[in-house]
Each structure stands twice: as structure tokens, then as C-alpha cells.
Amino acid sequence: MSHSPDHLGPLAEAPKPSASPRRLAITAAASVLLAVILLPADGPISTWARSLNPGGDLKRELEVLQQFGGATSVIIVLLCMIALDAQRVRRMLDWALAAMCTSLSVLVIKMLAGRPRPKFADPLQFNGPFGQYIDPTKVNADGTSHIVGPAFGFGREELWSMPSSHTSAAFVLAVFLATMYPRLKPMAFGFAILVGVCRVVFGAHYL
Questions:
Q1: CB burial string 67-90: b at 16+ within 10 A, e below
Q2: Element (H, E) at 139
Q3: Under DSSP, is residue 123 helix (H, G, I), strand (E, B) or coil?
Q4: Which residue of 3, 11, 126, 180 is surrounded by the most CB atoms within 10 Å?
């Protein structure tokens, strides 16, 4: 038997009206300004976060949780919707379109920025799409400097530290869940924020 949204009780209450384009533009501009202001602190924050170095069960739990927004979590959401909210399972197509557009946008921005990963300890460096980067952690067998880049092209992950694909995917899923089931909004965005924190703690990205 299929389940209508009524079977979900308060989870499926009607969503609030979406934000206006003007409000979205202001939010985006404020986010960019905040990022610029925090840029000088990016290095120290990253160093401190990586120094936390969680281990044991805590590390394993965080490694699993940072995959929120990935394939497994999406499959779980899909199966739950099939079991509990089958009439609206086609809305997963909305998620798929949003995820695809976000993934492509993030990839393009990564290539345009060409920002080295935190392991290079060079947080203020942006190489752009075609710049090359001298890897301070490696020397070639012939004694020459090891060159990384350019960022434009596939397989150049060492220069793709901004933005985070994991975090962006997590927020896509969080927005989808919050839209479909508003009562899940705090939990969904809590998980998405945790993904971003984990990516910094594990040294994959800056703040």
C-alpha cells in the first residue's frame, strides 16, 4: 500500500514560501564578503583543525558521516520515500537535477580557482585554471622541483581544494530533505555542516 504525505504526520507539513531573488542575492553577496574576510584566517584554522587528529571509533564515525550527500545516503533516502511516501518519490528527480548542476558548477569553480590542498600549507595561493604549482613536499628523482597542475583538466585533485564537492553534495541533499520534510531541516543541515567540518579536520579542504 502506498503512503500519502498524511501518513508522515508533521514531517510532511507544507513548506514555507521560498526566499525572494533579492534575498538570495543579498545572502550570496554576504557569503562572498565573509569568505574574503576570513581568508587570512584560513591557514591557522586549517592547521588547528587538522591538529585535532581524531582517532579510533570517533574517526571511523566521522569518516562515515562525512559521506552524507553521497550515493549511500541518497539510496537510503530513496528507499525510505518508496516505503513511506511513494506518491512523491518522483521528486527525487528534483534532487538529481540539483545534484548534477551543483556538481558541474563546483568542478568548474575548482578548476578556475586552482587552489592547492591544505597539505601544501599554502592557503593564500590561487593558481587559476592554467597556472602550475611547485610542490614543496616533493622533489623529482633528478633533483628538480615537482610541478603540479595546471588545475584545468581531470585528475588534478591536488589543486582542487575549493569548493568542497562533499560539502556541496551534502547541502543539496539537506535542501531537498528540508523542502520535502520541513521538520527534518535542523537534522539535515546539521549533517551538512558536519560534513564541511570533517573535510577541514581531515585536511581535504580549507574553511
A1: ebbeeebbeebeeebeebbeebbe
A2: strand 133-139
A3: coil
A4: 180
